[in-house]
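Write out the 3D structure for:
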Amino acid sequence: MQNNKPIESKILNESLTDPVSGFRYPREWVDACKDTAALDKVRQGLSVLTAGGLVLARGYSTGTTAAAAAKAAVISLLRPVAAVRVITPSKVAVRVPAEGRAGSARSIKNPGDHPADITGGLEIIAEAFPSEKGCKIEYGEGIGRFSRTTPRYREGDPAVSPQAADCITGAVREAVSESGLPGVKVVIRVPAGRETAKKTLNERVGVFNGLSILGTTGFVEPWDDHLSESVWDRIGSSDHPVLTTGRIGMKFCRMLYPDRQVLLIGSRIGDALDRSPEGTILCGLPGLILRFIDKEICFGTSHGTVEELMEDPSCRERVDSGLRRYKERYPHVTVVLLDRKGGITGMTP
């Protein structure tokens, strides 16, 4: 006799792991959610599950949105386009709306359940031009440029992160392969980018005249500024948790502390530390962490960013002094600062 067990029962009995973060959701969280369609979105990495069973949608980064517009622009040289498939930096494939016709395409940035996403609803436009060979990508109107040379960028470079650039390049190459074109040039622009950038911290980190195109994973996390009790529940209930501010930190924290639960807290460091137990580790890139310790840590130096400060040996005492003051404020927390290759560059005493 055939087993007619309901599909939803099978779904609830399966273990559920977030393909973006690698977090394995507790069974009780899964049981608390009765919406099987929403759970399928969690399984795909498009949403996150909270402790109470609430499902929050992830948004798309500016990098993913730009990649969608660029791919649609290339495909539209041959036929109209309404949406395209993009492989995000986290290797999760998403289908992004992107309207394209006659070599021009637009995609609107989806903020997901992130109400404070300043770039939510922003239009990114790409124009494609056939060429004899290769794929060339240019960044135009509304995309910021670096005003000075830093450890990773040169003065005048477009403010496009390596992960976002790789995602965009990959999408364009896929489109060229699918279309059979010998080559293409794509120009990406953000018409409202310069105006929107005034609401960000871009100028403080040396990016002028437009937005940055970013996206370490390709997604915008709904809990960066969204009250998601699941994160705080996990902090309070964890035994010696590791807190990190971003995806690069999460990657290396899992390698450094394989026997501990690693939790992404974004910019809400103070909220997380107020809930954290004895033995908590705060580990990640120094930008957010050092500015939380001392908002004026770059004041009086020639550096506009924490990254530049960390590269200057003459500023080492300033950093160490900040870490000592931090330990006095939060004696139950150990701070570990990482570089982008996972090396430890600083630690509280």
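The chain has twelve helices and 19 strands.
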